[in-house]
Amino acid sequence: MNATTELAAPASSVILSLAGAEFPELGPALILPIKVKLENPLLGNECYIGSNAHPIVLELTTGKSGSETGSLGEITSRAEGGILVVKNSKLVNGTFAAPGVTGCGEFFSFLLDPIINAKLGLPAASGKNNAVFNTTLELGGIESVRESE
């Protein structure tokens, strides 16, 4: 089975806070509303954990969250300072909740959803899940990005 993370809302709903990245006590560095698509031939095309209406909201921090601890990474710039680069950042969330699956098996979801939920331990309360994003972030205005390509 494959699992693919998708945004559950328009990209404009993603919230990035550089203040939160540098000072975790000010709040999350990155907030992502997501859903996870589960894929295999038996599950059909609409098998998801979370949905657009009820997303999994990851509030990622460079600080401590549950049993996970993040880190800001190295801050540099490129394109004559027009693009901020944060390398080797570790964003974490060790406290998010996850709903059960929906839509698995098209015509047989009433049978498959409970089986998959039991196998995956869903729904899962806050503190039962961990998300770790090891990442490099590049942030710049559109003109700086165009000029750097």
Question: How does this structure look, described?
Answer:
It is a single chain. By secondary structure, the chain is of the alpha+beta class. The chain is built from 3 helices and 11 strands. Strands 1, 2, 3, 4, 5 and 10 form a 6-stranded antiparallel sheet that branches. Strands 8-9-11 form a 3-stranded antiparallel sheet. Strands 6-7 form a two-stranded antiparallel ribbon. The mean pLDDT is 93.
Write the layout of secondary structure elements.
Layout (H helix, E strand, L loop, with lengths): L1 E6 L7 E2 L1 H5 L7 E10 L8 E2 L6 E5 L3 E2 L2 E2 L4 E5 L4 E11 L7 E2 L6 H12 L10 E10 L1 H7 L1
What is the structure about, briefly put?
This protein has 149 residues and is α+β, with helices and mostly antiparallel strands. The protein is built from three helices and eleven strands.
Descriptive labels:
six-stranded antiparallel β-sheet, three-stranded antiparallel β-sheet, 149 residues, alpha+beta
